[in-house]
Amino acid sequence: MTWWQRQRLALTALAVAAVAVVGVHVWLDVLPAAESSTQIMTAENGRAEIAGQTLTLSSVRWGEFEAPDGSRTMSIRLDSDGGPDAESCGLFTLAEVEGDRVWSNARTGLDVPYDAGASYCQEESGPYVILAVFVLPDGVDGPFQLEVPGADRSARFAVDP
């Protein structure tokens, strides 16, 4: 009896396990990534439609809220008018146009009044205000891009304070 004959059960199990690993990788990693390729839509005149809502950039303010030493806040307000198909959206991010840095909405870590506006797109059909607050290092002046992710695409707003 040769070595191959003695090890055929172990080799068959190894081959089946390898095929299973590749299948699981494709199922869990490759297919979802291919399906979630998000389109980015640039807002025109400060206005974009995302997640069943029309968002309009209404104001950008520096230093509206208290920030840690060596940093300052930038408050961005968006007017939202949701329709009957309004959905919530993902985490707002702010990125430098000419740079690598990206900041997430830091509103929850700051002393921002609850009634100042919603912190993300809501599943509402009526108009409301969204307030995103970012903590930026001193000396960062912009211009920036605000990205609002929806279910199948993202909206990108030019922010030049």
Overall mean pLDDT stands at: 85
Tally of separate helices: 2
Strand arrangement, major sheet: 1-9-8-5-6
What's the shape? elongated
Alpha-beta content class = alpha+beta
Report the span from N to C terminus.
80 Å
Helix content: 10-25%
Radius of gyration: 23 Å
Question: What share of the residues does DSSP label as strand, in percent?
Answer: 35-45%
Number of strands: 9
Name the poorly predicted regions: none
Largest sheet: 5 strands, mixed
H/E topology pattern:
HHEEEEEEEEE
Give the gist of this structure.
The chain is an alpha+beta fold and 161 residues long. It has helices spanning 3-6, 8-35, and strands at 39-42, 47-50, 53-62, 71-82, 93-96, 102-104, 127-137, 144-149, 153-159.
